[in-house]
């Protein structure tokens, strides 16, 4: 198994789209996650992350320039008890409600599929992190069209029990730039998780393409206590 350098991997991709990273800090003390958004259109770039309770939501930077909020305004991060939910769309709420009603992560996502943004049919990527009494595991899901065929939805879930210190997994919506945008392929990429929250935040933010990056969320959760620290970077200020 090859462990990729996270910063270099991001730098090599002009347009990964929206992406998330989940893993464990190098010292083994923290559950780590990052979620980033990018944009090519004025509407997509006109966003910021703001804190919303224990989670975050997207918000128009300039409300006067907002055209269609349907796929770009949502809550990427919500917390339900010992579970942190991170996604690239309003399926965050679907997962939250499903878990609350006793359904599993996978069962909750059965009612959803890729986004209806023809011709890209952007994948829905989601993760849940379970931190309780010193134990930690996580799951990552991707819902995508069958090679651009919207009549077929591919549902892939990856589960990681007792993750190794200093390692994480990254998944993003696109393999790169294009028209239409090509969907992510294969398993989540294994990446190295280095340093504390500020070093990790800088690595991800600096790795994203300067022209296309929009916002970044990072959280370090103490696996023993459940307490967390959060960082948010917004290109629009």
Keywords:
237 residues, alpha+beta, Glutamine Phosphoribosylpyrophosphate, subunit 1, domain 1, six-stranded antiparallel sheet
Largest sheet features: 6 strands, antiparallel
Please tell me the CATH architecture by its name: 4-Layer Sandwich
Uncertain runs are none
Number of domains: 1
The gross shape turns out to be globular
Q: What is the CA-atom radius of gyration, in angstroms? A: 16 Å
Question: What's the CATH first level?
Answer: Alpha Beta
Count of DSSP helices? 5
The count of β-strands is 13
Structural class: alpha+beta
Main β-sheet, spatial strand arrangement = 11-10-1-2-12-13
Note down, in words, how this protein is organized.
The protein has a single domain, classed as Glutamine Phosphoribosylpyrophosphate, subunit 1, domain 1 (4-Layer Sandwich), CATH 3.60.20. The strands form 3 sheets. It has a 6-stranded antiparallel sheet, with helices on one face. With 237 residues, the chain is an alpha+beta fold. The protein is built from 5 helices and 13 strands. The longest helix has 11 residues.
Topology at a glance:
Elements: H1 6-11, E1 19-24, E2 30-38, H2 42-45, E3 47-52, E4 55-60, E5 77-80, E6 83-87, H3 91-100, H4 105-109, E7 124-132, E8 135-146, E9 149-161, E10 167-172, E11 189-192, H5 197-207, E12 213-222, E13 228-234
Antiparallel strand pairs: 1-2, 1-10, 2-12, 3-4, 5-6, 6-7, 7-8, 8-9, 10-11, 12-13
How is this structure best summarized?
With 237 residues, the chain is an alpha+beta fold. The chain contains five helices and 13 strands.
